[in-house]
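seq as requested:
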Amino acid sequence: MASESFTDAFALVSANVLFAPWTLVTSIFLHGSVDHLLYNMFALALFGMILESIIGGKKFLMLFFSGGIFASIGAALFYPSAIGASGAIFAILGALTILRPRMVVWVAGIPMPMFVAAAVWALMDLVGMFAPGQTANAAHLFGLAFGLVYGYTLVKKFREERRQKSAGPLSRTDIDNWERKWMVQP
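struct tokens:
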């Protein structure tokens, strides 16, 4: 089948990575199923758009590709072969964890701050390392670790502004200003 030979030509095969180093990148763009592709596209669109709006396109692309390559190296150490963008996406999650730790995300139907969600995802991947399956959990962990480090390099410039707690209830002026800005006037 043509698609199988195409995938074989560009998938990361650990035994061949020194002879075909480009597969550290090309494997990021291959997926094992439509579901795999859709899950990765959803996560990339959701978290990628948030992070790209914070750090800009150039830094975002640098993170995506560098994190993806680092995750591919991690995958090559643990698995005979690997494909998918999950490691690069976990790098995005890692950077968001540092830059927006209190941003609320939903994990398994439960809202939680980004730093808690990252810990839950890391724990699930650590457990997954010891349970045989089709997921390259090591690639996720390597990508997440890369993203955390990358996030630390950006934290001074892109840190979340801390809001001062209000001294008391909103004044009538505050409420009027909010209504003028956000409410549709008849």
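Residues 34-55 form the longest helix (22 residues).
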